[in-house]
Amino acid sequence: MNNIKINRGLNIKLKGIAEKTTSEAGTSALFAIKPPDFEGLIPKLVVKVGHEVKAGSVLFYDKYKTEIKFTSPVSGKVAMIERGERRRILAVVVESDNKQEYEAFKQGDPSNMSREDIVENLLNSGVWPLIKQRPYGIIAKPDVTPKAIFISAYDSAPLGVDYNYVLKNESEMFQKGIDVLKQLTSGKVHLGVNGQEAIIDTFKNCKNVELTAYSGSHPSGLVGTHINRLCPINKGEHVWQINPQDVLIIGRLFAEGRFDAKRTIALAGSEVEKPQYYTSMLGASIDSIVSKAIKGENVRIISGNVLTGTKVCKKGYVGFYDALISVIPEGNHHQFFGWLTPNFHKFSMSKTYFSWLMPSKTYALDTNFNGGHRAFVVSGQYEKVVPLDIYPVELLKACLVEDIDKMEQLGIYEVIEEDFALCDYVCTSKQETQDILRKGLQLMIKEVG
Amino acid sequence: MKAIRKILDNIKPHVQKGGKLHKFHSFYDAVETLFFVPDHVTTKGAHIRDAIDLKRNMFMVVIALIPALLFGMWNVGYQHYMATGQEGTLIEYFLHGLLKVLPIIIVSYVVGLGIEIVFAQMRGHEVNEGYFVTGMLIPLIVPVDTPLWMVAVAVVFAVIIGKEVFGGTGMNIFNPALVARAFLFFAYPSQMSGDKIWVNGLTEGQGIVDGFSGATPMAQLTAGASQNDLILGFKNHAMSAYDMFMGWIPGSIGETSTLAIILGGAFLLYTGVASWRVMLSVFAGGMIMGLIFNAFAVNAYMEIPAYYHLVMGGFAFGAVFMATDPVTASQTNTGKIIYGLLIGIVAVLIRVLNPAYPEGMMLAILFMNTFAPLIDYYVVGANIKKRLKRAKA
Description:
The complex is a heterodimer of chains A (449) and B (393). Chain A is 22% helix and 22% strand. Chain A has 449 residues and is an alpha/beta fold. Helices cover 63% and strands 2% of the residues of chain B.
């Protein structure tokens, strides 16, 4: 096992980290797969409202890559198809019948299966979209063999999921999932774990992986950081990534022959009465998890973490890739001379506030913008929180001017938005760096592919 | 607080789109955000944001300038009283300086902010905080007897040509305060150089004690004096490095006291607002060039101890407050060190070798402002090359 220390970064200590207890989520029967969770996807519907489905039945597929299918996590019937502007499909909602019947897929020992069979099984069952590729952070292309697959079992983001807790008793399925992934790559499967805590057996005894322990501040747990250290992506190369809980879904698919999309979801944040873990399914309704546990009304519910997550309402659903719901106060209030007063309750990376003197204090940060949008003025800030061998400001400026050559030269293939999320946070000029980068990535997809 | 909020809320509908006073909306925004951090919330990207904003950032620089400002005011009075042969108290010195300096500050802010607001209005932007600092820097780097209209003209030139034509704060190539100073220096050379301009009242010459000289140490060195010939005011009164460090010498208003500047600099480094890479490497560059001159000394100026360069004239002020301007400095960390070193080296080079410009700091920083993007280009270029090499391997 290797140890890697990440020296740059920033830990934002928020109040309301999930306690290590797990309950069943509430009985809400609605589950949804949301096409907007997948960058650039144009969905083609297979079902209509009222159709009976089983867990693993196809709901829709990718219009341009028809082999990539999206399946129902539960059995029941299609309750609703939510549409937005220009009839864009926002969510396909399935009402569970609580019987949980499964479609049957191939099962067996992945080491005896051909790569084609494995890929086909993953595609048919709707498990495939759980695998993302770099460059661009989109669903992996099935016809590509990646040079490595990265899994990070260390969520270093604010209020991050503790995988040492969640995966503690999942050794068998985790190993099974890893064995499947091993067949998909020509290189190694890399597993990153938290080096600041004791490593659990699930990871320690795992075979067929290259185990690396990371320590340091966020983003030490991000896959992007790991890739940059171990296996940087060059032009034309692909690296895949998958979340650790989704490795279990793959494991169960090959062990049991069914799409069992069980997921443990953390509910955390300063506005949660009792932050803890809940077991539910992929695409669970927010309501079923947060129902009574929220303080007050003026809050923001986020599927995912506070840096990269998506704003959802109570009637919404947990994102396809998310295992965390964060609830923080909205910041829609004026603050008198806020820029001038000492503000002990505010957190800043800079030493212009006093938060750096209280390293162990936790904060209930709200969603206030804390200033106005400005041109790039202060330099050297992003470099402090991006531990990659990349010049963030130069890359962002290349994205802004849509200079594809420059973006390529400066390393656009190696990064996705989450790697720049802390730049959003620390920026004095309140630049939307994730948004800028996403637009750059979209341009790359369009022009280079 | 609630009363102010109420007034602002009452005016708000009028300045919003379609309101009668819409043309003043930038000004309204500036006032509103001065009193209140707006109630805007995040809509995309990270849901939480750092508490720092540009206002606070710039405000920290203004705080850092306070020691130099207060000392400058005292020194204006002190030099004047010495020139006129009077004894005064600390308060008297300070009040004299306050009355001389305050009008310059007011002119600088009123003219500069006025232009900023007009430009913000034209572009439909919020008023940028950049002038917050520039407006304080300009009074500190001019001689005390600069006529107010000249200050105003320089500010107009600096804000429009130095900044707004490039698109405003963050887009400018040259440090606006130095553009103002350079404008004055080249447009009105007779009022901006010589031995008489540095001490209040000396140009008019009324009541000046016989034999008083307001020459700065660098003017004396350029004229051929050696380290031991330097005088402070009177022939029999030698000027030591200690005098220069403490700052009771003739010079521009805020630049004389290295001690006061270091206090401000320490604050900037502590808060992380200014780059330590730039600041320290400017001093290092000056020191290195001074030592090189020492090693090959052929005249008195080249012989003076290298550290003299750091305490004389505007070197320290430039290193702490001007070179560290993040917009016009190099953006990359490696670039910042190269940029700083070259500023120090070029400043001392101009001082010693060019008799036309006794002070080289202003020109050195403006010169390196021009080269900062080039330095970055090569630093980033190294990263690009590394990536290409990796791809081929």
